[in-house]
Amino acid sequence: MIALDAHTKVYLARGHTDMRCQIDGLAARVEDVLQADPFSSHLFVFCNRARDKIKVLVWYRNGFWLWYRRLEKQRFWWPAGTEQSSVELSVRELQWLLEGLDPTAVQGHLKASFSLL
Q1: pLDDT of residue 105
Q2: Whole-model pTM?
C-alpha cells in the first residue's frame, strides 16, 4: 500500500480536466501545464467540469497509480481558475476534500502560546 505522510504534497489542477485522459495524458499535463515532475511521488489531483469525478495520479516506486472517484449526487469543492496553475494541499486537506468538505473553510483550534515569567 502507498504510504502518505506529512511530507507528501498534493497538487490540485485548477479548472477542469477531460476525464478521458488516462495515466500518460495526466502525466503529460503535470509536466506541461503544472510545470511539475510526475515522478516526484506527490499526488496530482484532477476534476471534471461537473465536479463529480476526481482522478489522482501518483508515482510509486516503479509505476503510476491512478485513483478515480465518482460521486452519484453531490459535487466536490474545487478551486476556480485557469488550468495553468495548481493549489497545494496537505494529505489531510485532500481527505477533507474527498469527504465533501471545503479544505479552505475548515479551521482548527487557534494556536495557544505561553510565556514564562
Answers
A1: 77
A2: 0.84
